[in-house]
Structures are given as structure tokens and as C-alpha cells.
Amino acid sequence: MTKPDSRRDPLARLLEIMARLRDPQSGCPWDKEQDFRTIAPYTIEEAYEVADAIEREDRPALREELGDLLFQVVFYAQMGREKGWFDFGDIARDIADKMERRHPHVFGDAKIETAEDQTRAWENHKAAERSAKAVAIAEHSALDGVPLALPSLARAEKLQKRAARVGFDWPEAVQVLDKIE
Q1: If I label 154, which of 17, 143, 148, 179 is the partner at 20 to 30 A Cα–Cα?
Q2: What is the 3-state secondary structure (H, E, C) of 31-42?
Q3: If we measure between CA atoms, which residue out of 40, 11, 15, 7 comes closest to residue 150?
């Protein structure tokens, strides 16, 4: 076995490791058996471990957990590449495009002065993107794009915030009855 060369480009090295782990002939039996659904619970767990390290202000643990979370993305990218759907470059390109599109005040001529203004602009960009997607599939709802896999309370909160943005929010519960009638 050859000694790893940690001086190489770390991302290229990680992508190569994942390809070897999934190699049909010489890869790891466990890694080869995995698919998008079987890996999803690990991704959720890793995201919670990142949040936990942040909450505990444990910088070494945060660095490690971010690596584990990155590995999840690399795993999905490899499986996508194997199916001919996408690869890591596609994922990175798409998120870079999205970040530039949603930050026209940094990458364009728009003027946004405060974090609050940016939050509103971000939500407007997201709403426009959801609407464009909905038009493409001939449906549209303010609730489009709320992930089904969110934990129940997180999903309920996100649905409530979306509904409130289109007028379904009242200061008093009794006012809901008027809307229902």
C-alpha cells in the first residue's frame, strides 16, 4: 500500500478516494452497496453533528464534522456520476451560479445596504426561482419547495412562514375562523 500524498490537491484526492471506494471490482463492499436513499440518513446525522460542534464551540470537532459532511456530498456526486446524472463539478458550478445570482449587490449593480434588506432580497430571489420552476411544471404554490424530509416541527415552521408571506397570518387565533368561513 502506498502512503497518501497529503500535498496533492485535497479535493481531487477526496474525489479519487470516493471513486476507488465505489469501484465495482476493487472497491469497498459497503460503499458499493449504498445508494441515495441509504446515504441520506448519514447526511442528516452529519449535519446535526456540525451544528452540535458549533453549539459547543469545539473547533477541532467542527473541522472534523465539516469534513464528514463534505464527504457526504462527494458520495452523492460519485453516485450521480456513475448514473450519468451529474458530478461534483456540476454541483459546485450550480451552487456558485446560485450564489452569484442571489447576491446581485456583490456580483452586479444592485444596492443592498443591510442584512435585513438582503434577507428580503434573498427570499424574493428564491420565490422567483420557485415560480419559474412551477411554471415549467404548470403548477404554483407558495408552499412549493418545502422539503418533505424536514423534521415535522421544522417543516411546520417553514410552511407557516411561507403561508404568512402570502397573507395567511393573523394576530389572534379567532381571526382564522373568518378566513375558514
Answers
A1: 179
A2: HHHCCHHHHHHH
A3: 40
Contact 54, 64 (CB under 8 A): no
Domain boundaries, given as residue ranges, for the chain: 10-91, 102-167
pLDDT in the model for residue 2: 59
Across 19-23, 25-29, 136-140, least confident range: 136-140
**Distance between CA 46 and CA 12 in Å, rounded?**
22
Helices 10-21 and 59-83, axial angle in degrees (round to 10): 60
DSSP code, position 6: T
CA distances in angstroms from 118 to 8, 102, 125, 174, listed in the order given = 38, 9, 10, 34
Q: Which of 9, 6, 31 is nearest to 18 (CA)?
A: 31
pTM higher than 0.85 for the full model? no
For residue 66, pLDDT over 90 is answered with yes
d(CA 57, CA 63): 11
Residue 135's pLDDT band, with cuts at 50, 70 and 90, is low
Closest CA to 11 of 93, 72, 70: 70
Architecture of domain 10-91: Orthogonal Bundle (1.10)
Task: With beta carbons less than 8 A apart as the criterion, state whether 163 and 143 touch.
Answer: yes
